[in-house]
Amino acid sequence: MAKLFRAVIMGPPGSGKGTISERIAQSFGLKHLSSGDFLRENIAANTEAGVLAKTYIERGLMVPDNVMTRLLLPRLEEMTRHSWLMDGFPCTLAQAKALNSTCDLDLVISLNIPYETLKDRLSDRWIHPASGRVYNRGFNPPRVQGRDDLSGEPLIQHDNDQPEALVARLRHYKDVAKPVIDLYKSKGILHTFSGTETDRIWPYINSLLSTKIPSRPETDTQHIPMP
Ligand SMILES: Nc1nc2c(ncn2[C@@H]2O[C@H](COP(=O)(O)OP(=O)(O)OP(=O)(O)O)[C@@H](O)[C@H]2O)c(=O)[nH]1
Ligand SMILES: Nc1ncnc2c1ncn2[C@@H]1O[C@H](COP(=O)(O)OP(=O)(O)O)[C@@H](O)[C@H]1O
C-alpha cells in the first residue's frame, strides 16, 4: 500500500481553508476532515463532547483544547487506511502538541491573506448550516440566491463574520496560531502561501502536492464517505 499522507491546513477565518481543502481532496483523493464538521456532527448526535462543545460555540468561543483533542484524536487514530487533510485543527499549541504525539504530519499549509480581503469575503459569506456548505456572492454564488444548491434550504450569515467581530477573531487567530506555525516551521514541514485570490494560490499548492502525492487517476473520482 502507498504511504499514507497526512496534512494540515491553517489560516485565519475566511482565508479559504475549506475551499482549498475541497480542491485538494478532489485532486489528490485525500479525505478532507474539518474540525467544524466534526463538532457539528457531534452536536447533531448529542454526544457528550457535542453537548459540551455547543455551549462554547453558541457563545462564539473556541472549544477547550481537552474537548477538541478527546473528540478528534481517536477519529484520526482510526484513519489507518486513508490519507487525510485536516482543516481547523490544530488551532492552538496544546492541540498541536497533542496531535504530534498521535501522528507524524507530512506537510502543513499555512494561508497568509490580507485583512481587507478577509473582511470583504466574510461579509459576503453565506452558509448552509445543516451541511456546512459555503457560498460567496461573487466567488461561488449559489445557483438560486439565498438557497443551498443541493437541498434548496435557506442560507444564513454568521454574526461573527461581520467586520466588528472579525477584527477580534483575527487578532485571536494571530496570537494562538503563531506558536503553532513556529513549531511546524522548526520541523521543516511548513509551506506558506500568500495572496488575495484562491484561484491564484491554488496552482502553487497543486504543484507542491504533486511533488509529494501522486495525482488522482481520472477514473477514481468517487467521494469517499466518512467512516
Ligand atoms: N472573492 C473571493 N472569495 C473567496 C475566494 N476564496 C474563497 N472565497 C470565499 O471566501 C469565504 C471564506 O472561504 P472558506 O473556504 O470558507 O474559508 P475558511 O478559511 O475555511 O474560513 P473559516 O471556516 O472561517 O475558518 C467563502 O465565502 C468562500 O466562498 C477568493 O479567491 N475570492
Ligand atoms: N481546533 C479548534 N479548537 C477550538 N475550537 C474549535 C476548533 N475548530 C473549530 N472550533 C469551534 O467550532 C466553531 C466552528 O468551526 P468552523 O466550522 O471551523 O467555523 P468558523 O471558525 O468559521 O466559525 C468555531 O467557531 C470554534 O468555536
From TrEMBL:
Residues 34-63 are annotated as: NMPbind. GO terms for molecular function: AMP kinase activity; ATP binding; GTP binding; nucleoside diphosphate kinase activity; nucleoside triphosphate adenylate kinase activity. Residues 124-161 are annotated as: LID. A ribonucleoside 5'-triphosphate binds at G14, S15, G16, K17, G18, T19, R125, V134, Y135, T198. InterPro entries: Adenyl_kin_sub (IPR006259), Adenylat/UMP-CMP_kin (IPR000850), Adenylate_kinase_lid-dom (IPR007862), ADK_active_lid_dom_sf (IPR036193), AK3/Ak4_mitochondrial (IPR028586), AK4_mitochondrial (IPR028585), P-loop_NTPase (IPR027417). Signal peptide: none annotated. It is found in: Mitochondrion matrix. It catalyses: dAMP + ATP = dADP + ADP; a ribonucleoside 5'-diphosphate + ATP = a ribonucleoside 5'-triphosphate + ADP; dTDP + GTP = dTTP + GDP; GTP + CMP = CDP + GDP. Coiled coil: none annotated. AMP binds at S35, R40, Q95, R169. The keyword Transmembrane does not apply. GO terms for cellular component: mitochondrial matrix. It comes from the Eukaryota. Its main location: mitochondrion. Keywords: Acetylation, ATP-binding, GTP-binding, Kinase, Mitochondrion, Nucleotide-binding, Transferase. Residues 125-157 form the Adenylate kinase active site lid domain. Belongs to the adenylate kinase family. AK3 subfamily. Consists of three domains, a large central CORE domain and two small peripheral domains, NMPbind and LID, which undergo movements during catalysis. The LID domain closes over the site of phosphoryl transfer upon GTP/ATP binding. Assembling and dissambling the active center during each catalytic cycle provides an effective means to prevent GTP/ATP hydrolysis. PANTHER family: NUCLEOTIDE KINASE (PTHR23359). This is Adenylate kinase 4, mitochondrial.
